[in-house]
């Protein structure tokens, strides 16, 4: 029983990491698009 809960916990950690990576990639995409529109944003980053 303990094994099942620990595996579920590991799955949720992996899911959180995937979600975080996705969020970071999305943020980078937004920043790069904004930088194309306004070069000052690229300088700030």
TrEMBL record:
Protein name (Swiss-Prot/TrEMBL): Uncharacterized protein
Lineage: Bacteria, Pseudomonadati, Pseudomonadota, Betaproteobacteria, Burkholderiales
């Amino acid at each position: 029983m303990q094994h099942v809960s620990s595996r579920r916990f590991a799955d949720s950690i992996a899911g959180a990491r995937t979600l975080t990576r996705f969020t970071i990639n999305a943020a980078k995409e937004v920043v790069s698009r904004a930088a194309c529109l306004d070069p000052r944003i690229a300088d700030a980053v």
